[in-house]
Records
---
Amino acid sequence: MFLAPSILIVEDDPKTAKLIGRFLSKEGFRTSRAADGGTAIDTFAAVGLDLVILDAMLPKVDGFEVCAVIRRTSKVPILFLTARTEEANLVLGVGLGADDYVEKPFSPRELVARAKRRFSLHGRALELTAIGFTLL
Amino acid sequence: MNVPMKLLWKLLSINSMAILIVILTIGLAVHLRAATYFTTLTKQYNIAPADAHAMFLQAVDRYLLMASVTGFVFASLLSLWLNFRLTRPISRITQAAALIARGDYAQRVTTRGCGEIDLLSTAFNSMAERLQQTDRLRKDFIVDVAHELRTPLTNIRGYLEGLRDEVIAPEKAIFVSVHEESLRLVHLVEDLLQLARADVAVQDLSPEPFDFASLIEQILQTFMLRFAEKALRVDADLQSPVPIVADRLRLSQVLTNLFENALRYTARGGLIRIRCERQGNLIRTVISNDVEGSLDLPDSLFERFQRGEASRSRDYGGAGIGLAIVRKLIEAHLGRVGIRRNNGQAELWFELPVGKV
């Protein structure tokens, strides 16, 4: 049976999280939510995910730490939500391993478009790997 | 102060040295040559004493001229050296000042020795340091404000876009939610204005004598309805009268912000305790309230845009400016303020001097 891709939304503002959830469900994605970094890491370990939407500024464990922990075990696409220009610079900096970012206040439609784009890129990369190409 | 005299001593010593050289040369000339002159002239050449005297004067004049030239050259060289020592650091400071005026706050001048110039350099450097710090705080502040604006704007923009594109159904709850977000922006703007006014308060207090305990009572009354809505109990022990000479309006602001915080951060059904008493020349007020276990209470809460860790989720609705205003106003009154955790309670205390009548 075909399962829709599953997306984890890590965002501490409940309204923003709900908003992103609605837009993604409308596009047929399955979504789950974590309100802080610790929960995000636990949720990620527990369930298989196809994309993580990660707020950079989170209480306790921030988005960058969450990203580092996820990258230790997984190549899942990570899309950052940033609220400061210097966070955006960090996201694209070397070593973090994030794939993309949108800056708040973002347009939800743009976020959805970027998420979809990640899937097509990621999917193609997986197909290539499957038939013997290595990308890196 | 002996330090500002240093330049004077330097100049004096230079002049004295020049004068000393002139006197020494003349003295030497007179001592060495005068006796020989007179003997030789009168005995050997039979020259009349009057002529001999004239020749002596001529010789003295000649040596005087030589000494003057030597002294002048020497003094000029010394003055030039001193001038060089003085003007070079000054022009360096001028250059640095020009660069700072253009916005390059990292400029510093290197100090050497221990004269007036070095005092000027030190003062100049601490001014530059202060400017750089103020500039950094200003930039941080703008970044913080922008960040605080982004979350409600994200929600307003996102939900409106959702309504427009019919991703979100136009239910009443959605409009209430978007309206709340716009109120967050309104509160942020109000807080920013308050903060700007608190900045001014430091130089602009209008003290008057009044009873601080009854001011607390009065502000507390305005909160009773909202406390009741959240089923909060209030235990106030105010030993009225507590006379104080202070800016009544500004202290009302302090109390309003503190009660606002207590209202926001006390768990439903919790207790708020208020104590106010005079201790010597200080008036100590303590407001303690039940808080949730996870709430951190670092002193940085008094910095702008800092909130207790658990409240970072913004469920509480504050922008983190209230306590920064409280600290500014209390410090303007030469008072102190702090917060600590005490058996599951947050205990905020502040001390104000009684003030002069």
---
Amino acid sequence: MMNYLFSSAIVGISTAIIIATLLFSQVLSWLSTTNIAMLYLLMVMALTAYYGQRAGIMTAIIAVLVFDFFFVEPRLSFNVQDWQYLITFAVMLISALTISQLVNALRQRQEQSQHQAQLNQQLYVLATQLVSALRPEDIFAICQQFIEVQLKLKVGFYIPNTFLATKEHLILGEFNPHEQRILDTLLNQALNAAAPFSAEQSSYFPLKGQTRLRGIMRISAATATQQTTLETIASMVAVALERWHYIHVSEQQTWQIKSEQLRNSILSAVSHDMRTPLTIIYGLADQLQHDLRDQDHQQTIAQICQHSWRLNQMVSGLLELSKLQSGYVQLKQEWIPIEELIGSALHELKPLLAQIDIQLSDNLDTLIYGDELLLQRVVSNLLDNAVKYHDGQGVIKISVDHHDNLVRLSIANTAPPLSPEQQQQMFEPFQRLQHSANPHGMGLGLAICQQIIEAHQGKIYCHCQHDDDQQNFVVMTIELTTPPQPQVQS
Amino acid sequence: MILSANDWHILVVEDHQDIRQLLIHALKKAEFKVSAAATLAQANDFFNQQHHYPDIIILDLGLPDGDGSTWISQLRVWCQIPIIVLSARFAEQDKIKALDAGADDYLSKPFSTDELLARVRAQGRRLGQLRQQQPQQAMVSFGQFKFDRHKLQLWQDDQLVHLTNIEYQLLAVLTAHAGQVLTHRQLLLAVWGANFSEESHYLRIYISHLRKKIEINPSRPSYLLTEVGVGYRFMLSG
């Protein structure tokens, strides 16, 4: 290619010099030799400008030789009589060199800017394509196409799932486990301060979004001159990914709000629709209990009352649990004396507690910070559980333990020991202990407790414990962290 | 004139027909005079006719033609008629809103006939006092206690029980509304004043102090009962 160009330059130059020499030889009679030298100089300039630096130097040398041979006395020889012509030769040569240098620099710059303009045009097209991309996969495909076609390079992308609103890692190209580990470490450390770097013939460009680092673009065997372009592409990809991310997040939120509204309206419709007939059944049965006097009916009706009441409790429990699980429960946190929570629970379960010895610890004045209604549900459910599962002895111990900012409330009942698996399983909805001869309810109580305590950022757990008489107790403990106890002046 | 129970005219405002029937049946059986309305608009009609004027209202909070709490506060501007609201269990916010708007008590669905009648009778007693323009007795007694609200003295049998100033005021407000539920906000306003209406822990701590002095077993109170998530209720009968 280069040789072909150069040989065509040689042909061009030779032709031009031959024609010029023929022309000049015709006008020699009425032009001085100096002026002919000027004409050669002009020609050298023109040819340099046209053919470039190397051809320019060659033209200058040939022009000097031809001028010397044909026009300088003695003619048709390379001898020079007048030494002053040496200066002319030198000037011609230097001018030719200088001009060729200048022209060349100019041309290079022009070529460069043309190239740059072309690249900018391509980048602009890339940017418009990226804006219209709907998914990260499209962004990758557009970018891959551009880099492979325009820059003749291989590209890879690595975006862990925590860096964009995606469920899985977004990966284009092959990343070996070792490489992935290194990139993970880097991404997690340098949140938005990472700079491009090279390793093992690959260059890595961080995808820096407006708010944070979004991932890494890998280019195999990139040259230093492509660095800037690749950085530009990396930042365009980062912006495009981030744009997708925010649109996606806001869409998800809208969708979540809508589904939450739907869930709530279904819940309230169901709760209303189910409770109304239950209210009527319970109310009518209760009235019958007052109206009918004979013993047989009394018992039947008492059962209707009891079961419709329990059904109502279950419906409430289900609704409560699904509301808690939706994660949209707003806590109305207040300072509550633990004694009051326990007192309300004891009052609520009064009919069940007649035969049971309830032992309370003495530091019940401790205040706990939480939602009264929800915490009262927890204490009631735990107490209800203790009543259901206590064995014969009829002892339930309630104790409170307060250290620094940690408050523990434990409810213990005598019962056969539970395996660690059972202690875990009991918090799953619809779990009831197998050995229970008389299972009540649906087993939602502890699941509800767990949801409530988790909403309070606390812990709830079960363990077994022996007392001095080798009697086994199943202990349910809730553990809440509280701010410093408030001071109230008397 | 002292009204006997049978002369009380009770207005039941409930949109669901079967629940309305249930209420009417239970109240009629207890020999009250009962009228019924399915909407707030129908309830308003009763106030336009002198001879149908109700004495007690039982109001469902989920009526189709308006917000029950707003209706209560409009009524309270000019009328002291006792109002008992009906609402779903676990809908404590609705109850608090209605009570703060001026309702006197609430009943959670499902309810038993006994609960319903106890609530209505408690309001009837209050009504009796209102109608007779009878000043409340300064002396009130519950269990072994006698409380002189004028002199601010609490006697347990023959022993004077020492209460702090705030405890006296709290007990005075509670006994003045015996049998009725008082919200946290109402109690805070009455005893501590407007600046403390959100400081519910003041109230809870003083209630627990008071329980230590008047309850045999403060963990299982028989006079000063907690209405979870709503407020407190003082029962003279224990």
